[in-house]
Amino acid sequence: MDMSEGVFDWLYGVIAGPVEALRDVAERKPVGWALAVIIGIGALSSMAGVSQASFDALGGIQLEAVLRSLLSGGIILCAVGYVIGVGIVHLAALLFGGKGSFAGLFSAVGFAQFPALLSLPLVALGRAGGPVVTGLTVAASVGLSLWVVALSVIALREAHTMSTGAAIGTYIFAALIPLAVILGIVLLVALLATAAGAASGLFF
Question: Which of 21, 84, 108, 110 has the most other CB atoms within 10 Å of its CB?
Answer without folding.
Answer: 108
